């Protein structure tokens, strides 16, 4: 565990820099995606990784759990997975004559929901209350989840056979959707010449913990967003709701998520105030999976169109 040093802003920044460097040593050539994942975690959101197999989605999740000292559980989503397989189940104990709740893997700090779109909508929705409220209800009893609670879900956008697309309500619970893509030639050569990823993951050491993560969250909440910055953010939201090619635009909850993520990105960039560039850096991964096209272009293209059409005053 990291030494028990005071959680000053300077100390937090030093430890955060070490954490970023450590994850980037495992996930080679993806500094922007790693920084986005950190922003999502620090802002208190959940992360959807949508990409082909073998590009590092699981590696990123495991590296985050080790670096932030988060209890890690992985659930392989399949068509026969039941909600109780995730949440847990109450079992009758003859000795006591009472039902005892046996918690499932959702009672962890970082839950990797692998190939989430292969489970049925009923099982997918079992995550909804947990992601939104940090709790689950079983047999009328409410059980609080760990704090922090961070869901990293993966899905393969190409192999759609036997899948159940996530509904809009479930997609909206993910603060960011990222694609890792293939590594460039330099990063791939380093990957081929380097150590096995599992060996590297086993050697990772915690750079931060739950207390430091909570302190980081409070630090980012204090990052200043000026009136002009909020005007720009609202202009993006309004444009998404009246655009001819968009059937359903961004909700107020999406606006709150964009502000929270932009504050985290600004703090990660060494600033105590949000710039339009921070909003622009977060807009596509935050907005694209929330936009419902009326026709033609997909969410990513529409999000980039909104960025191009909405001016910064």
Going across the major beta sheet, what is the strand order? 2-5-8-1-9
- How does the helix and strand content classify structurally? alpha/beta
Please estimate the helix content. 40-55%
Q: What CATH architecture of the largest domain do you see?
A: 3-Layer(aba) Sandwich
| Average pLDDT over all residues | 91
Return the CATH topology of the largest domain: Rossmann fold
Radius of gyration: 20 Å
Account of the protein in words:
The chain has 313 residues and is α/β, with parallel strands linked by helices. It has helices spanning 9-26, 31-42, 57-67, 83-87, 121-124, 126-133, 168-171, 185-193, 197-203, 210-221, 227-242, 252-268, 276-287, 299-309; strands at 47-50, 72-76, 88-93, 98-103, 110-114, 135-138, 141-144, 150-155, 176-178, 246-248, 292-293. The strands form four sheets. It has a five-stranded parallel β-sheet. A hairpin with a 2-residue loop joins strand 6 and strand 7 (141-144). Helix 2 crosses helix 12. The chain is globular.
